[in-house]
C-alpha cells in the first residue's frame, strides 16, 4: 500500500488540564485520493480530530504526519498549503467585500501572482457554481451560497487534502448534493477529501471509507460497506445505517443478498432479479 | 478561563446579594479614582485582593492580565516622565534628545521625577481598577445581574440589554478566535508569525465577520424573544427571588467604611507618596 497522506499516531487531546480525553490514543491512516467520512454523535471528538489535523490545536500526546512530515511545530498557515479546512459555520469564514475577493484571500496570502489568482478564482467560480455571484457581498448571500463560497475559497488554494466539517448542515436537499458533488469533483482530480457528517446516506453515496468515533475513540473504521455492515456496533453510538441498507438487511434471506447494499440502484437491481418479468 | 466568565463557586461573595455587589462595584471604582496617594492606593489594591481571596477566585487569572497591563503601565510611566506638564519638583536631568528649536516636540528628553511618580500612580490605579470588575463578573451569573438591576429600579428591557451585552463579550472572544483560525487556514500568517504592528492591523480584518455575526445573532435573538412575548407587559415576574441577608448588609457597611477611611487617609496624607 502507498504511503498514507495523513497518519495519526497514538494521538490524545483534552481541552482542560486533567480533564477527560476528547481524543484518546487515536491511530488513523488516510490514503491519498481517498474520500473519507468521519461520523459519530455530537461530542464524539470529530471536530477536535479535525482541528488536530489542521494544527489549530496540538496533541497532548502522539504525532500527526501529513505527507510524512510531523506537523507538531509547523504553523497553521503553512499547514494550510497542504490541507484546506472548511469550518462548520460559513459566516465566520467570510472576510472580504466581494465573492471574488473572498476567493482571492487565500492565494494572496500564499504569495501567488495576480494572473494565477485570477485564473484560479475564475475556474472555482465556474466549477462551484457561483460565477453569477462574483461581485456580491458574501455575508448577504443565502446560506447555501455562503457555504459554496467558503468551500470555493479553500479549494482555490489547491490543497492536496480538504476537510469539510459538516458542510451540509442546514442545507436543503439540492444544496446538500451540490456541495457533496463539489467535493466529489475535487476528489476526482486526485485530491483527498475528509468529510465530517451526520448524514449516513451521503456517506453511503459518496465516501469510500468511514471512521466511526465514540467518546473520543475509534469505534469502527473501514470501507463504507464494512462499517455499515455492522449495525450492532453502530448501535452503540446511536448511528443507523442508511435506510436502504437496513431494508436490504431485513430482506437479505428473501432476496439472497450476501453483501451490504448502500444505494437504491443496488437494491433495485436485487429486487428486479426476483420479480418475474411480464414476458417471461 | 477568562476574567469575564462566571466562575462556579459557593463562596460568600458568590452568595452575596447582587445589588450589594453592584453598589460596592460602583463605590470601589469611584474611590479608586478619588485616591491619589500611592500608599492609600496600595491599601485599596490589598482590599480588592482580599475580596478575590474571599471569593476563592484563581489569582492566576488576574495575574495573567496584569502581566499584559504592565506593558501599558510602563508606557504610561514613560509618557508621563517625558511630557509631564508641571514638572517643577526635582528633575532627573538629561539633555534634550530633540533640540529646543524643533516646533511642538522640541526639548523632549528631560525626564521629570514628578512625571514618573504620576505615571506610577496612574498605572497602579489602572491595575486596581481592572481587578475590581472581574470579582463581580466572576461571582455573579448573568441572571442574577439582570435581576439585581431590575430590583434596583432599572426597566427590565434595559436590564436585559445590559446583561446581554455583558454576555456577548466572552462569546465575541470565542468568535474572534474562530475567525482567526479560519484566516490561518487560508494561509494568513500574521497572527502566528507577524510583528506586533502587523498583528494589530490584522485585528481590523476580524471586524466584518464579527459584526455581521453579532448582528445576525441579535436579529435572531430579538425575533425569538418577541415570539416568547418579551416586552409585552410593563413588568414581569422572575423565577428567582433575591434575599438581602444581614451579613450582606454588614459586609457592605464594612467595605463602605473602609472606603471612607481610605478617602480620609488620602486627604490627610495628601501628595502622591
Q: CATH class of the largest domain in chain A, please?
A: Alpha Beta
Strand order of the largest sheet of chain B: 1-2
The number of helical segments of chain B is: 11
Domain count of chain B: 2
- Weakly predicted, low-confidence segments of chain A: none
CATH fold-level label of the largest domain in chain A: Rossmann fold
Order of helices and strands of chain B: HHHHEEHHHHHHH
Task: Describe what this molecule looks like in 3D.
The complex is a heterodimer of chains A (280) and B (273). Chain A has 280 residues and is α/β, with parallel strands linked by helices. Chain A has three domains: 146 residues, Rossmann fold (3-Layer(aba) Sandwich), CATH 3.40.50; 68 residues, no CATH class; 34 residues, no CATH class. Chain A contains eleven helices and ten strands. In chain A, a hairpin with a 2-residue loop joins strand 4 and strand 5. The longest helix of chain A is centred in the middle third of the chain and has 16 residues. The model of chain A has no long low-confidence stretch (mean pLDDT 91). By secondary structure, chain B is an all-alpha fold. Chain B is 68% helix and 1% strand. In chain B, helix 6 runs antiparallel to helix 7. Chains A and B meet through helix 2 and helix 3 of A and helix 7 and helix 10 of B.
Amino acid at each position: 500500500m502507498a504511503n498514507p497522506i495523513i497518519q495519526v499516531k497514538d494521538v490524545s487531546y483534552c481541552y482542560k488540564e486533567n480533564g477527560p480525553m476528547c481524543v484518546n490514543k487515536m491511530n488513523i491512516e488516510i490514503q491519498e485520493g481517498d474520500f473519507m467520512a468521519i461520523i459519530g454523535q455530537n461530542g464524539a471528538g470529530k471536530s477536535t480530530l479535525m482541528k488536530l489535523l489542521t494544527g489549530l490545536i496540538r496533541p497532548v500526546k502522539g504525532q500527526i504526519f501529513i505527507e510524512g512530515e510531523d506537523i507538531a511545530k509547523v504553523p497553521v498557515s503553512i499547514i494550510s498549503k497542504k490541507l484546506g479546512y472548511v469550518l462548520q459555520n460559513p459566516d465566520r469564514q467570510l472576510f472580504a467585500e466581494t465573492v471574488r475577493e473572498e476567493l482571492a484571500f487565500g492565494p494572496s496570502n500564499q504569495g501567488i501572482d495576480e494572473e494565477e489568482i485570477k485564473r484560479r478564482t475564475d475556474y472555482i467560480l465556474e466549477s462551484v457554481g457561483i460565477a453569477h455571484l462574483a461581485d456580491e457581498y458574501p455575508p448577504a448571500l443565502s446560506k447555501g451560497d455562503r457555504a459554496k463560497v467558503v468551500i470555493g475559497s479553500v479549494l482555490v488554494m489547491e490543497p492536496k487534502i480538504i476537510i469539510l466539517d459538516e458542510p451540509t448542515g442546514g442545507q436543503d436537499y439540492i444544496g446538500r448534493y451540490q456541495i457533496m458533488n463539489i467535493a466529489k469533483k475535487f476528489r476526482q482530480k486526485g485530491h483527498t477529501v475528509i468529510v465530517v457528517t451526520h448524514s449516513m446516506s451521503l456517506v453511503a453515496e459518496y465516501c469510500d471509507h468511514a471512521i466511526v468515533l465514540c467518546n473520543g475513540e475509534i469505534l469502527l473504521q473501514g470501507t463504507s460497506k464494512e462499517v455499515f455492515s455492522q449495525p450492532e456496533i453502530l448501535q452503540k453510538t446511536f448511528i443507523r445505517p442508511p435506510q436502504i441498507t437496513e431494508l436490504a438487511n431485513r430482506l437479505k434471506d428473501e432476496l439472497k443478498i450476501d453483501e451490504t447494499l448502500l444505494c437504491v440502484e443496488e437494491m433495485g437491481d436485487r429486487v428486479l432479479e426476483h420479480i418475474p418479468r411480464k414476458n417471461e | 478561563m477568562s476574567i469575564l466568565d462566571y466562575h462556579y463557586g459557593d463562596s460568600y461573595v458568590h452568595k452575596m446579594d447582587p445589588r450589594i455587589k453592584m453598589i460596592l462595584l460602583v463605590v470601589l471604582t469611584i474611590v479608586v479614582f478619588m485616591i491619589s496617594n500611592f500608599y492609600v492606593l496600595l491599601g485599596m489594591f490589598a482590599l480588592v485582593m482580599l475580596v478575590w481571596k474571599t471569593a476563592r477566585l484563581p489569582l492566576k487569572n488576574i495575574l495573567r492580565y496584569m502581566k499584559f497591563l504592565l506593558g501599558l503601565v510602563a508606557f504610561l510611566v514613560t509618557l508621563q516622565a517625558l511630557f509631564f506638564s508641571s514638572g517643577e519638583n526635582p528633575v532627573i536631568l538629561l539633555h534634550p534628545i530633540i533640540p529646543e528649536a524643533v516646533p511642538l516636540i522640541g526639548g523632549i528628553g528631560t525626564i521629570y521625577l514628578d512625571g514618573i511618580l504620576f505615571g506610577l500612580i496612574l498605572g497602579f490605579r489602572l491595575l486596581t481598577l481592572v481587578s475590581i470588575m472581574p470579582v463581580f463578573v466572576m461571582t455573579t451569573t448573568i441572571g442574577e445581574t439582570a435581576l439585581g438591576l431590575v430590583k434596583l429600579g432599572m426597566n427590565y428591557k434595559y436590564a436585559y440589554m445590559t446583561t446581554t451585552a455583558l454576555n456577548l463579550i466572552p462569546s465575541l472572544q470565542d468568535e474572534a478566535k474562530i475567525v482567526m483560525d479560519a484566516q490561518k487556514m487560508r494561509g494568513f500568517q500574521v497572527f502566528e508569525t507577524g510583528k506586533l504592528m502587523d498583528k494589530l492591523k490584522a485585528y481590523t480584518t476580524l471586524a466584518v465577520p464579527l459584526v455581521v455575526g453579532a448582528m445576525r445573532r441579535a436579529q435572531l435573538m430579538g425575533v425569538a424573544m418577541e415570539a416568547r412575548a418579551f416586552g409585552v407587559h410593563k413588568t414581569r415576574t422572575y423565577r428567582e427571588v433575591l434575599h438581602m441577608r444581614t451579613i450582606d448588609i454588614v459586609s457592605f457597611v464594612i467595605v463602605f467604611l473602609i472606603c471612607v477611611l481610605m478617602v480620609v487617609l488620602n486627604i490627610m496624607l495628601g501628595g502622591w507618596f
